[in-house]
Amino acid sequence: xxxxxxxAVLALLIGIGGLGxxxxxYFIFSGQIAALGVQDDNNSGEIVDLTDQIVNLxxxxxxxAVIEMLYVDLLEDWEPSVTNTNESxxxxxxxxxxxxxxxxxxxxxxxxxxxxxxYSFMTFRFSIDGIIxxxxxxVAGGYDIKEWWLDYPVALQYxxxxxxxxxHNVSVMVLSSYSLNFIRHSSILIQIYI
Length: 194
Description:
- The protein is of the alpha+beta class and 194 residues long.
- Strand 6 and strand 7 form a beta hairpin.
- It has a four-stranded antiparallel β-sheet with strand order 3-10-5-8, with no helix packed on it. A four-stranded antiparallel β-sheet has the order 4-9-6-7, with no helix packed on it. Strands 1-2 form a two-stranded antiparallel sheet.
- 24% of the residues lie in helices and 49% in strands.
- It folds into two domains: 2-62, no CATH class; 66-193, Sandwich (Jelly Rolls).
């Protein structure tokens, strides 16, 4: 009986202490807690509600809506037919309207073979409407590779707002230094947004 009454008294003391701390916090910090929901513009002493600013931020978020999304897979292995020349791996046609932007994401796995050469690499670039972009680009491979082959994850992305309204196409261009290099499990994502 003594242990249970001791625990009850301890619980009662902890409860009273929590209630006292809550009352102390309410009376001492209530002004600071209320100020978290309002803002004083330019230290003028005028308190402004932040609700209007949150609505404005929400409207700005909706202005960046995705209009259209295209996704294409190329699951077969792709090998270049020639070396040291840009070749198109995959081409996708899309359309933009005035004021819209386009985002491109290409993901693949590149396998480069060294086979005793000093270097072996593959370079990836985007081509929009037949114009190969110098940037962005990514390279899989390198010099003095000691392995017979290496497997690299590749991701290439680009966003543009400089396209005129109308139909366009985007291609992924690959330049390979060795004819046995190849890519596998490729996909391209295109998002049209404002």
